[in-house]
Amino acid sequence: MQERADPSETGRSGTTIDILRGVSDPQAGHTIPATAGGRGARARILAAARMLFYEQGINATGMKQLTDAAHVSTRTFYQHFSSKEELVSAYLQRWDSEHLLGSEAGLDRLDLPPRARLLALFRTPPASAAARGCPFHNAAVEMSDPDGPARTLITAHKQRFLEKITETANAAGADTPKQLAQQLAILHEGATAWWTSTGDRASFLHARRTARLLLDQATTSR
Question: Three-state DSSP class for 219?
Fold first, then answer.
């Protein structure tokens, strides 16, 4: 049987929504002005961090590569960030503050009913999207200090994500919204991690089918 299309699968223009806003477009968010010196340096450093940390990893990105990409000197870098760890925290905060995670932002789409917003978590990313997955999950894998500031930001983000799924599950009429939210969050994390590891976008299709079953089971009495 052919998979039914969800209204959550397309944007208002009818095209597939990127799982990560701007990440599938090699040019989006990756243009760093070649202006040297301190003016606008912090913004350039953050832009370089977003590009390099996300695309190749935090530990794989050296300070020279970072400062070269941002068109700043090492001295200018340390005028804005006391350490690479502080930059990692700012990098993660930017993903949160600018709502760059498109799949998670789908939970805020009030033009869709709650059930469709939950299923939107599992929309298949376009073929052009870089298989890099969730920047918070990626950072958690790389950051070894469980008590470090980056880990605190990662945990807080995942907790807010879970709370938003719970609110949406409750609005969708789930009998046990907290339990459904846990199931969907883990399903989403797994599908994203599988895509990151293998490049296989079909993980979202399989996850969406499972999410439908979980939603059906959770709303049988409504």
Answer: coil
Does an H or E element contain 168, and which? helix 149-171
**The two structure tokens encoding residue 84:** 């690479």
Residues 211-222 pLDDT 10s: 999 999 999 865
More reliable by pLDDT, 222 or 78:
78
At 90, which amino acid appears?
Answer: A
Q: How far apart are CA 12 and CA 154, in angstroms?
A: 30
99-144 residue pLDDT tens: 667 778 889 888 999 999 999 999 998 888 778 889 999 999 998 7
Question: Which residues, including other chains, have CB under 8 Å from residue 168's CB and lie 6 or more apart?
Answer: 107, 114, 117, 118
Contact yes or no for 135/95 (Cβ under 8 A): yes
Decide: pTM greater than 0.85. no
Q: Which residues contact 114 (CB under 8 A, 6 or more apart)?
A: 168, 169, 171, 172, 173
CA nearest neighbour of 171 among 121, 118, 103, 208: 118
Question: Which is nearest to 118 in space by CA: 75, 65, 182?
Answer: 182
Tokens 């040019």: give the residue.
27
- Give the span between the Cα atoms of 44 and 33, in whole angstroms: 7
Q: Which helix (H) or strand (E) holds 132?
A: none
User: 17: closest CA among 108, 135, 97, 93?
Assistant: 108
Structural domains of the chain sorted by starting position, each given as residue range(s) with its CATH number in brackets: 1-19+101-222 (1.10.357.10), 24-99 (1.10.357.10)
